From TrEMBL:
<dbReference type="InterPro" id="IPR002178">
    <property type="entry name" value="PTS_EIIA_type-2_dom"/>
</dbReference>
<dbReference type="InterPro" id="IPR004715">
    <property type="entry name" value="PTS_IIA_fruc"/>
</dbReference>
<keyword id="KW-0813">Transport</keyword>
<dbReference type="GO" id="GO:0016020">
    <property type="term" value="C:membrane"/>
</dbReference>
<dbReference type="GO" id="GO:0008982">
    <property type="term" value="F:protein-N(PI)-phosphohistidine-sugar phosphotransferase activity"/>
</dbReference>
<keyword id="KW-0762">Sugar transport</keyword>
<dbReference type="InterPro" id="IPR016152">
    <property type="entry name" value="PTrfase/Anion_transptr"/>
</dbReference>
<dbReference type="GO" id="GO:0030295">
    <property type="term" value="F:protein kinase activator activity"/>
</dbReference>
<keyword id="KW-0808">Transferase</keyword>
<keyword id="KW-0597">Phosphoprotein</keyword>
<dbReference type="Pfam" id="PF00359">
    <property type="entry name" value="PTS_EIIA_2"/>
</dbReference>
<protein>
    <submittedName>
        <fullName>PTS sugar transporter subunit IIA</fullName>
    </submittedName>
</protein>
<dbReference type="GO" id="GO:0009401">
    <property type="term" value="P:phosphoenolpyruvate-dependent sugar phosphotransferase system"/>
</dbReference>
<keyword id="KW-0598">Phosphotransferase system</keyword>
<dbReference type="InterPro" id="IPR051541">
    <property type="entry name" value="PTS_SugarTrans_NitroReg"/>
</dbReference>
<feature type="domain" description="PTS EIIA type-2">
    <location>
        <begin position="4"/>
        <end position="149"/>
    </location>
</feature>
């Protein structure tokens, strides 16, 4: 599942952003660059629409911004590890350091996004997974670990 959704070029480590807005725009920029969308504005708008319903900032300094959007042409995940934590209006009130952007087309009839979110949420309960989010040093290492841990 995730081997098709995540790729090393969609893993961004030690990125510096000051706000949640900056990160959402970065996800939009990356999505255009890697042909996930040809409509950044619509994608970012849809990410914000979902965010307004309920914060995607979970515990453990993790946020899972996600959308099912007509603007998404191909289901993908991007991962961003921040150099400095950013306020995300998280459920636990803590700032966010790890962001998984989950981008799904509206035609996602199999509810793949829910499966990805459930898999991530389950793994976030594991200490080893949380430690790896911080300790893996390269995008390739993260990709290999992530696909082995979560991929089917």
């Amino acid at each position: 599942m995730t081997q098709l959704l995540l790729s090393p070029e969609l893993i961004f480590l030690e990125q510096e952003f000051k706000t949640k807005e900056d990160i959402m725009n970065f996800i939009g920029d990356v999505s255009v660059k890697f042909n996930i969308t040809d409509n950044k504005e619509a994608l970012v708008r849809d990410l914000w629409q979902r965010e307004k319903e309920y914060s995607t900032g979970l515990s453990e300094s993790v946020a899972l911004p996600h959308t099912k959007s007509d603007a998404v042409m191909e289901a993908r995940i991007c991962f961003i590890r921040l150099k400095n934590e950013v306020d995300w209006d998280s459920l636990d009130g803590k700032d966010v350091k790890y962001v998984f952007g989950i981008l799904m087309p509206s035609s996602n009839l199999e509810n793949l996004h829910l499966k990805v979110i459930a898999s991530l949420a389950t793994n976030l309960l594991e200490d080893e997974f949380k430690e790896k989010l911080e300790s893996l040093e390269t995008a390739e290492e993260f990709y290999q670990y992530f696909t082995n841990q979560i991929g089917a």
